[in-house]
Amino acid sequence: xxxxxxxxxxxxxHHSPFHDRIEAISQVKSWSAWNGVQTARVFDxxxxxxxxxxxxxxxxxxxxxxxxxxxxxxANEYLNHLVTRDVSKLKPGRVSYVVWCNDEGKVIDDxxxxxxxxxxxxxxxxxxxxxxxxxxxxxxxxEIEEETFDIAALSVQGPTSCSVLTAAGxxxxxxxxxxxxxxxxxxxxxxxxxxxxxxxxxGYELWCDPEHALAMWDAIFDVKARGLxxxxxxxxxxxxxxxxxxxxxxxxxxxxxxxxxxxxxxDRSPFELGLGWLxxxxxxxxxxxxxxxxxxQKPTARQMVKLVVEGNKLxxxxxxxxxxxxxxxxxxxxxxxxxxxxxxLAFAEIDTKNGVVPQEVWAEIYxxxxxxxxxxxxxxxxxxxxxxxxxxxxMTPPSAF
Amino acid sequence: xxxxxxxxGGGHNGLVCATYLAKAGHKVLLLEARDQLGGPASTTEFAExxxxxxxxxxHSLNNKVATDLQLGxxxxxxGEAVNTIALSADGNHLTLAKNVVSGNGLSESDxxxxxxxKSDFQAYAKALEPLTMNKPPRLKDMDTQDKFTLxxxxxxxxFGLGKDNMREFLRVGGINIYDVLKDSFESEALMGAIAFDxxxxxxxxxxxxNTVLSYLNHVRGEIYGDQSIPKGGxxxxxxxxxxxxxxxxxxxxxxAKVAKIKVENSQVTGVxxxxxxxxxxxxxxxxADAKQTFINxxxxxxxxxxxxxxxxxxxAKGNVAKLHFAVKGLPKFTGLDENQLCxxxxxxxxxxYAEHAFNAAKYGEFSKNPILEITIPSLKDAxxxxxxxxxxxxxxxxxxxxxxxxxxxGGDDFxxxxxxxxxxxAPGISEQIVAKEMLSPVDIEQxxxxxxxxxxxxxxxxxxxxxxRPVYGAAQYDTPVDGLFLCGAxxxxxxxxxxxxxxxxxxxxxxxxxx
Lengths: 401, 515
Ligand SMILES: Cc1cc2nc3c(=O)[nH]c(=O)nc-3n(C[C@H](O)[C@H](O)[C@H](O)COP(=O)(O)OP(=O)(O)OC[C@H]3O[C@@H](n4cnc5c(N)ncnc54)[C@H](O)[C@@H]3O)c2cc1C
Prior knowledge:
A: about 400 residues, alpha+beta, Gyrase A, domain 2, Alpha-Beta Plaits, 6-stranded mixed beta sheet, 6-stranded antiparallel barrel, 8 helices, about 30% strand, B: alpha/beta, 18 strands, about 15% strand, binds flavin-adenine dinucleotide
């Protein structure tokens, strides 16, 4: 399916170029639409997929992710005006995590900028952005094209992912640093490999022409067939666990994207999301700069934080309080039980005290035991670091596990 | 750095604003792109010995502005009041004074209704005055001035108009002039003549929603005084403004086209002229329209994306062409004597005529039967034309900015079209013509630097008025760029030779800058 082709709206699910393999490998046939594309929620069991990502290698189809190609003489300056981070020095072969804001300095979306080749960029976004990208182009000589379905992409993540890809026939991964990318050859076709991902572990994303999609899939799963390393597909449910462990927030899930926020005050700035480190006031003007500078004058009233929740109960949609039975200070936005850390983890939005984030809050947790409801209190401590942050994530070369 | 204020553009609003600021102690430098001040209000020679101004009827110069700036002492002569004569091919014309209409066999009912209709609309315009002479209030985060303005507006609407009139105003405020006129009048000729003032200068026909509002915008002038055709053309008003500006200490440079407004960290730092000269400034006031100011002079790189987008989306495609004919002898209009030729003549014989004229513009065509506003300025001032000659000055609509075949191609056809209409009312006039000039909206854009060549620097419509004029984010004369202000027709309350945007902008600048 190409971006330029008309979609058939009578069809509920559209198929990615990996569809045949995904359909075949799915045991439970549990599907969701991601950007209109049939995507597995679970392939066999969440546990086996989760542990593949954490202990061996997991593979996920990334094709439905929004992708845009940005080229032209002003491509870099354009991007630098679009996003809050300084990407003026992003070299070819490098990737940067970014957010972009509306005029009021509220986050519209997050994503990554790939500097593919000199002057050629790819922007990956969580949500559809073409309209915003186009209307942000005033004053720049750039070409902006959606290429979501013109690129087939796989996310290959896990401690053995480097070994798997090397065994599959991709050279040069040993020297590829986190947030770097290379153009490699795989059995005669070109694959772009970036050391990026959404699991917070060692991992890579592979990008190729949809024409070679199945060959790319097969090369990776062939490593398993050859009995070298275990390789398993990853569904959305296991992804939801690992992304919380990794500390990645999701626009639309954890906060309301500014362009779809209707009620005043329901959108969020990078500072409120704990993403202040992505805002650079020293670079030339960017959309939202003036508003963000003004916001900085005052202490941030609330902030998204990472919480470790004590006890064995998940803080499902819980309210947060400054102490047991105390004042309400926030709400849980996302949560997971982390099998590998043996802890309940969550993202939450909490009120600050004059701009200072309280380090400890209490969750009131409702839970049901044989259809009877109970409530309990759980102490939550704020942490700044990603919950799951293994050394191999940033080691180059990553050792063979 | 010394405190330098630069005004970009010496249109009448730029001059008004500059003068107020200079009087309040600002050191003001005014830079005008052309060799002459006044924009379309300047009187220019269009053929050897023949002069005219693009804007030719003075409706609404604001009295407070005239008094504050002592324009009388500076040489302003508004000229005597003129009526509007709605032409009829058979010579059976209608004469419309402010509150009285006569001629063309009008019924008793129409005669009476006209007086009431006009006084009602004048009352509505008066009720809106608190809004006119102040920055439009923001609805969120109001300051004291905004609350005061809204309070006064509420009071005037409720108690100035009275309950019944307020209700009527709220009923008609957003609808079209066609329905309102049809409810009130019988005579097609009279309805056509009134609708003329609702659509001239806009991309609207009588049935277009919003035309009651555009009519009200026109009627505002009537509460300040009478319409007139100034002696010497509109340039005379500009000359008076120029003297007042100079007297107040404004330094004026013509042939000084600003190429760039310089901005650092969202703060204006000065301007750069075409040719490279840099002028540092702490305050920059732009008389140019929003698109020129933000898109061309500041540039999208210094602005937030949605703000640029809003500015680019302002509807500002002109629909009026200006024709100047140099004629030998005084043209003869069927049924008009020489005194009547000194009045403002219009061609818009019915609502249907105006609607059909507008229809063409929707499809990028000019009207086969355009509506016309005709003056003969040389009757007010003989020096406008050589001995034994006259100038016929015509605003003709609809003449869309984006003409399908382009104005290079279509220009001559449009002149011929206008002349063929004119011939119906002034048979033989074509033979008297010795020279002519036609300014399409594209020409007006090029010569006067107004985007789309638009009369009002942007349509007068509910979504582009008040706290939305020219766009949200720049509707109180200050802009997202600190130290940069708007003072022209692009800002509240819009175009025409009124001086109001210039006055309001100065008031805003002074209240923000403390001087
Ligand atoms: C065809 C036509 C007929 C009209 N007839 C009438 C009429 O009869 N009566 C009436 O009341 N109104 C009339 N108008 C409307 C009236 O002319 C305008 O609304 C009015 O001139 C606006 O005044 P202003 O001072 O805001 O802007 P303008 O008069 O447009 O002045 C802007 C000035 O800024 C200058 N400028 C622009 N860019 C730059 C730059 N980069 N550097 C330096 N200088 C720059 C321009 O040269 C110009 O002098 C008419 C308009 C048109 C188009």
